[in-house]
Amino acid sequence: MTDIQIFFAVGITLVAPLLLGELVERAGEPVILGEILTGVALGAYVLEIVDPEGSFTLLAAIGSVLLLFDAGYEEIDVPATLGRRS
């Protein structure tokens, strides 16, 4: 990859999740859903930055753990979720 291609790929990788996350949040869904959808849409096969085999599996496992941590750390308002009952 040339320098400009790397710059373009990194720029898309950083900006796209922010934009799609904001769009999904305005639709009433969690931001993390937009970030996941961006990762699936761009992925290793679209940008072709990394080889999805080999040492990349360790990074994928670490990312999965961080995603689960983020999902579990999110604060949930239980009464609002279940609805107010009299």
Give your account of this protein's structure.
Pfam families: Na_H_Exchanger. The protein has one domain. 74% of the residues lie in helices and 0% in strands. The mean pLDDT is 80.
Helix percentage: over 70%
Integer average pLDDT: 80
Structural class: mainly alpha
Report the span from N to C terminus.
63 Å
Tally of DSSP β-strands: 0
Describe the largest sheet: none
The low-pLDDT segments are none
Radius of gyration: 17 Å
Morphology? elongated
SS strand fraction: under 5%
**Strand/helix succession:** HHHH
Pfam families: Na_H_Exchanger
Main location: membrane
Domain Cation/H+ exchanger transmembrane: 13-74
Organism: Natronorubrum bangense
Show the helix and strand layout.
Elements: H1 3-26, H2 31-47, H3 56-73, H4 78-82
Helix pairs in contact: 1-2
